[in-house]
Design a protein that fits this description.
Helices cover about 75% and strands about 0% of the residues. The protein has about 170 residues and is mostly helical. The protein folds into two domains: about 70 residues, Orthogonal Bundle (Rna Polymerase Sigma Factor, Chain: A); about 90 residues, Arc Repressor Mutant, subunit A (Orthogonal Bundle), CATH 1.10.10.10. It is elongated and about 60 Å long. About 25% of the residues are buried.
Length: about 170
């Protein structure tokens, strides 16, 4: 059992850390969360059912829940900006300079950081992890309708904030 778990740990530790970091945006907290995820996985390994999904999905659910359990006042997240752009959120002009591109992507990250953790995590799972709505519902243990409404609300909030920021910058 211990040898199998050690193999699983080495196979998934970087992925669990990265997932935690993308939600909490703090390397020390992400490291703590990663350790807690594997402690919980080891202790509750008997509850894993391969019939219900992959080990990776099970670890993802534990990771996301640990991130929410350890949330603090300052939450930050990171997402695929290209995929958010497809949802109607402009990240960059057609041909901005490299410094402008960096600035615009930083602006988009700040917009995403302004979302509450539940909206940020839902977007992360959808646009960064590429999960389906059903998979997100399972990972977060929420109804499918809640997943859809959170994603829709988050995208609308990002659009609104982006427009307000653009309007302020023109003044």
């Amino acid at each position: 059992m211990m040898d199998d778990f050690e193999t699983i740990f080495h196979q998934y530790k970087n992925w669990v850390y990265k997932t935690a970091y993308l939600i909490v945006r703090d390397p020390h907290r992400a490291e703590d969360i990663m350790q807690e995820v594997f402690i919980n996985a080891y202790k509750s390994g008997h509850t894993f059912d391969p019939q219900k999904g992959s080990y990776r999905n099970w670890l993802r659910a534990i990771t996301v829940k640990q991130c929410f359990a350890r949330k603090s006042k300052k939450h930050q997240g990171s997402f695929s900006l290209d995929e958010l752009e497809e949802k109607g959120l402009s990240v960059a002009d057609k041909s901005p300079s490299i410094p402008d591109q960096v600035s615009l992507k930083d602006d988009m990250k700040r917009l995403i950081d302004s979302l509450s953790p539940k909206y940020r995590a839902t977007l992360l799972l959808r646009y960064y992890e590429g999960l389906s709505y059903d998979e997100i519902a399972q990972v977060l243990d929420i109804p499918l309708g809640t997943v859809k409404s959170r994603i829709n609300a988050a995208v609308l909030r990002l659009r609104k904030t982006q427009k307000e920021t653009a309007r302020k910058n023109k003044l």
